[in-house]
Structure formats: C-alpha cells, structure tokens
Amino acid sequence: MEALEEKEELEETQEDLISLEISDFLDLETDEDVEKTSVTSDKSDFDWSSIDTSHLPSSYKTNSRQEKELLKLSDHFFQQYIHLCPDRKPLFIHPLNECGVQKFVSTTLKPTLLPYPDMYYWSGCASFVSDYLIMEPLKCSIIPPSSLYSPTTILKYQRGNCFDFTVLLCSLLIGAGYDAYCVHGYATLEICSLDQTQELCPRLRKPPEVPKEEDPNKYRIKYPLEPQSKFELQQKAKKEEETESTQEEEKEEEVVTEVGKPKRDPLHGLRVHAWVLVLPGKRKVPETFFINPFTGNHHSTTDECFLGIESIWNHRNYWVNMQNCRNGCKDLSFDLSDSVSWEIMFSESSEPSQLPTESSNKDTDDTVSDLRAVGTLYGTNMRFEMPLSWVAQIRVSNREYENPFPRGKKVILYDKAKLEKWAAYANGDGLVERLTVYADSDCTEELEVKEWFKHREDLLYMREVNKQTQLTTDHFRPGHPLLLKAHSYTSLEPETGHTVEFYHTARVDGLWKRFENATEMTEHFVGREDFLHTRHIEFGERDTEMEKAGITADASPRPIVKIKEYFHRNPEKPADEDIEERVFKVIDDDIQLTYHLELHDIIASKVVFSRVIGREKTEDEIFLSRENTVKYQPWASEKQKNMLYLYDLLWRLRAEQKDLKQQVRDSEAEMLNILMVREDEEANIKLSVSMFSATKREQRRE
After folding, report:
1. What's the pTM value of the predicted model, to 2 decimals?
2. Are the C-beta atoms of residues 482 and 669 closer than 8 Å to each other?
3. pLDDT tens digits, residue range 640-699?
4. 203: Cα within 13 Å, side-chain hemisphere
5. Which end of the chain is more exposed for a tag (fewer CB within 10 A), N or C?
6. 117, 400 in Cβ contact below 8 A?
7. How many Cα neighbours within 13 Å face the side chain of 421?
8. In Å, what is the CA distance from 331 to each residue of 263, 274, 308, 323?
9. CATH number of 64-194+266-344
C-alpha cells in the first residue's frame, strides 16, 4: 500500500506538471467557449465533496483480496506502459471512487437490464442516459478525471462528466446483450462541450432519397446520341474550371470573414472525451459504431468529430490502442483479437505470446515496437480472472423512468432551431416536445413551431404552426370519433379556410380530404365504386339582411352556385358512355357532361342541357327540346343520339342534382360539427392514463 501511495503522489505531481505546461493553452479558452453548450447548463455549482457516503455498502469503501491483486497487476502494467511509451498520455486505469478508494475501471461497470421495453435497445438506453443526467465538463479539458464514481451514485444525483455518462450507458448496453465498450479518447470542442449549435436538428433531417431503379430490360432500343464537337466540350470544361476556381476563392474569403462560423480551437486534438463503442455480432448489430453519451446519437467510426483513442474497456478486460490516430478514428481497426493493433491487459487465451522481445526490432515503427514491448510485460501473457463489480445493483423506479428530466424539461439548441422536451403528464395539454425553427442564427425570428403530444383523449399527437402565415395543422392518430387525420386552419371560426383529412378507409363515402372557405368547398375521394375522385362546390353570397340580423351559418346556408364532379375512367364502360366531368349550374339551371377519351380520340364527347329562355321553370318539370340541348358526340351510337335517351338521361341528372345539393348541405353541417368538437376538445383537454404508467395509475387509484 505504501508503494501505491508513492505512485499516487507521483501521478499527482505529474498531473500538476502537465497542467502547468498547458496553462498557456487553457488561457486561450474564453469564457464563451467554456460556457457555450447547446443544452442549458446548471448555474449552481454542485459540490461532490459534500455528498453523503455513510450509507454506501462496504464494497465502496474497501477492496477485497482479489481487487487488491488486480490493482497491483494493473499498476505494474501502467508503470511498464509509461516506461516503454513515454511520449503517450497516462492511461485511465484505476481512479478513485466516491469514497476515495482506488477501483479498476472494469469493475466499475455493472451490467444491468432494466425492466422497461425501451431499455432493451441501444437507442432507448442512450436517450434515457442523455435525458436523465446533467452534463458536467471535465475540470481540465485535456486530462482524464482523477475519480470515477459508481453508476448508482451518478443516478442518485443525476449529474456527471463524460466518463460517468459512458460507464452508466455501457453498463446498460452490456446488460441488454450488446458487445459494448467504454472508450477513453479525444474529440472536438463541440462534442466535449455538448455544443450542437452548428448541427442540423434530427427532427429536420430529410429521409434519404431512394434511387430510382433502372430499366432491367437490356433489349430495349438505345437511340444514338447527338454528335458533339470535342473542341467545344474542351472549351466548356475550361470555362467551368475557371468559374469553379473563382467561386472557391470567393467562398474562402467568405469563410474567413464570416462571423457565425466557430473559431479555431487551440486545443484541437487534445481534449479528452469518453464515449461508447459497440462492436458487431451480438444483438444482430451489422457494423461497428460509436454512441455519444451526452446526446445519445449514433456516430460512424469514421466521424471526424472523434480524433483518437487511448484505450477501451468492458467488464472483463482492458485494451490499449497501439494504432496511429493521425487521421482520427477513420483508419482504426476494431479487431480486438489483433495483438498488433490492441494490447490486451489480461490474456483471454492460454497460448503464449508470439510477440518478439523489446530488443528484437530496433528499426520498426515506434508504435509497433512499443506494442511488442508492452506485450512482453511478464514474459508470457497474464492470466487473471476479473473480480465481480463492486457497484450495487442499478435500479430505476417507475417514477424516475417516466420523469427523466432533472429540471422538469430539457432544452437543446441546434443550428437555427431549439428543441424542448418534457416528461409525459408534465403539461396539462400532454405536450412532451416542441421544436422551434428560426430564420437567423441568433434565434430571434420564428419561422415554424412543431409540437408533439402524448396520452391525449382526442388522439392529437402533433401540431405544426407556421408563424409567417399563422396556419396551424393538427395531426391525429387513428380512432378519433370524427375519423380525423389532419386539420389545417388559421381560426376555428366557420368558413375561414379549413382543410380536413380523414382516415378514408373507415368512411363509407371514401372521403379523405375536404377544403372549405367562404366561397367554395372541394372534396377528394378514394376507392369509390362510382369512380368519383373530386367534387368542387361554389357558393354565392348570403343575404346581407340576414347577416346583419346575426343569423348563424347553419340557420342561413349559403346559396349553391355550381357543383363540379370528376370521375376516373371505368374500364367496363365505353369511353363515350363513361362520364369524366359533370357540371351542375344550379342557379343558371344548366348541366354539362364531358366524356372520357379513347386512346385514338382527340376531342371528347359533350352534352349540355340548358334552360329555355323565356320559359318559367316549375318544380319537377322536365322540358327537353333541340333548343336547350347541345351535344357533340362524334363517336356515339344512334341510341345515344336519340331524344328519348337524352330525356331519360336528363331525368336522372335532375334527381342526382337534388341528391347532390343535400350532400353539400350535409358536408357543411359536418364541417360545423367538426369545428364545434375541436373547439370543445381544446377548451377541455383530457389525458388518458397509459397502461404502462404505474405512477399515474397509483395516483388515480388514490
């Protein structure tokens, strides 16, 4: 133990010397760089030295015989590493825990599977850790911390640095069956300080476009291309190169003078960070990837934000990276069985080391020679059984899981966007997430606001508000009593411009969209047996005297001026008998029919029934003559040109016009009912209790 204490003093003096050497660089960091984070930081300084450790188990305060042996072996490995690789930074192997006791980093991991469905997947674990904990920066941004607290203590106080985040997340991932590892390495200023103000919000990212499949028919005719002059192509290419060079110069000048871009980081490549590495194989993971514990986001191993790796560890072993990180993590191999790329602390096989001794190759690469030297620490590979974790069982209650945000909500700043998150049932209207999009980087002018809801009885789950036009769009889940899917409006007052979408498969009439304002109404249909797909209605103005009297819209319907209907092609009918468009001019008492075209036709057949001038119309009277009938049917049969056929057709159209007028009145009444129901739902918002919400069920039971 005296030797360990001497080594601790040596390490402290080394850290002091290093900190003195880099003080000049640290002075370059302005207060803005330190405080610049995309997540609201905790203004009150939390004093970790004042936490109560009296209630902690004895495993937190002492080391077992096996743990002491492990510390001796790891310390021997550490001393040999410093001796053989003097140019590299010290390893993060056995920091102090919350009780001031040295613990090996692998034993700080506690593999745990929490009893919640989302925690079985890496995305659920990562989002929980990033939401539940408050980020604290490292005391010195280029040196690993001197202590590493247990995941249970970190969960209790809901705060920690990148190493605390990583150990907790890795414990949950290993418990869920992933091949996960903690990584000690280097990253950019934005990653280390949780600055996402230069990134696009994930909610605004467009899905990747699916490439169009080429025509698989290899026998189709390939037409020859038009002949082109090679000289003209060369001249065109030269001009393009000249314009591109000038544009690049202009862009470089803009980048230099642009204020919004981040400044050059004087500590680039030196900032220490910890994150999680997930290897393929277990849980059907297809490829290796990183997880940033601060954000819970997935990153490729070639991401330029991660600049290098010193070491990795899991609950069974510890590996030192012996590869060159000049290009960041792009060229790194993550085959841990490769003894040239990764130096393992405790051998996982009984085979003796095949690596030559330190003095065998003097002219080889420095990194490889260091690796071989470290590989012969004991002459043969070390065989040691890792002791069990000293950490108590990780537990997260239902209340803690359902309310992960320590301050009640979480605010994340992105490039020209702000994302706010709340726990379920935290707001009376069921609001759980809000995204505000701005026109400028200073976030002063709002462009759009999107809100997401949960557990609402009216099944509203998303609302979009365009701040420029004040257009609001509500989105509903299936099951609404009115079969609503979406509702766009600027006001809930009638006839002010409403677009309503329905779940058409649940409706008898196949209506999926309706637009209505003061002068018109348009309805769209899907899957109807009569092949109707669009209906357009034009309204006239109401009587001014009735409007002045304050009569409501349902008591004073608008006069119907015109009704247009459009039909798809019915393949079972001839084209000259299949109506494509029909127009009912209600006030003018005209009916116009337009038929579909055959493939070889140019002009469609038409029939027009108009009112006879000078003749008063009586109810249910059908008057047909050659004066009020205009027809153009070049491809029609003799039967369709017969006056008796046209008389029967007009009789049917009059009856259908009467039914159509009633359908229009029903549509108006339905729109009024929708607005009344929506207004009542917004005035009296009710939240349903989820069957998975244990805390809410207990509150309701009480």
Report:
1. 0.78
2. no
3. 566 777 778 888 888 899 999 999 999 999 999 999 999 999 999 999 886 656 555 566
4. 22
5. C
6. no
7. 18
8. 27, 19, 10, 9
9. 3.10.620
